[in-house]
Each structure stands twice: as structure tokens, then as C-alpha cells.
Backbone:
């Protein structure tokens, strides 16, 4: 089951956004024991663990996160909400 989250950050460039998103995703992957791959040059990254996959792409002014959960994954709402909250507070 795929889910997409987009957030806009007017006035912020891709480097500023990527730096903060990277910190959030790194912490989350460590906490959840997920494999985290990042490509600083492309301003992107991905996480995965036992069928749960996520990827993000940063451009000037926004980030897009794509999540792919197995059909039966009881924590998908919790994981999605956690990511949305972190992105909403990125520059707060």
C-alpha cells in the first residue's frame, strides 16, 4: 500500500531541507532498526525493513516522501503520522 507525503518550505533551498530531513530520517531509522541509504548529491534517501520501504526526494522548497507498506502492517498509521509530524516541525 503506497502513501505519499509532500511538504513545502517556501524560501528554503534543497540543501537546507535535505540537511534537516536527513537528520530526521537517520534518527528514525536508528530507532526502528531500518536500513538507511542516502545520496547527498541527489538530495534523496531511502529506508527499508521487512517489506516496509520509504524514499524521499528533496528539491528547492519541498520534500516528497513515498512510503510503501505490506498489505497487513498494523503500524502504518502510526509511522505515517510520525513522519508527517516531523516534517511539519522541520523548521519550527
Residues:
Amino acid at each position: 500500500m503506497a502513501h505519499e507525503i509532500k511538504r513545502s518550505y517556501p524560501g528554503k533551498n534543497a540543501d537546507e531541507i535535505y540537511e534537516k530531513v536527513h537528520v530526521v530520517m537517520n534518527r528514525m531509522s536508528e530507532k526502528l532498526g531500518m536500513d538507511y541509504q542516502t545520496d547527498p548529491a541527489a538530495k534523496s534517501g531511502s529506508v527499508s525493513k521487512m517489506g516496509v520501504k520509504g524514499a524521499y526526494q528533496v528539491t528547492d522548497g519541498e520534500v516528497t516522501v513515498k512510503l510503501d507498506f505490506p498489505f497487513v502492517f498494523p503500524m502504518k498509521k502510526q509511522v505515517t503520522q510520525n513522519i508527517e509530524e516531523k516534517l511539519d516541525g522541520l523548521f519550527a
In short: The CA atoms of residues 15 and 41 lie 10 Å apart. The chain has one domain: 2-88. The mean pLDDT is 91. The first strand starts at residue 2 and ends at 8.
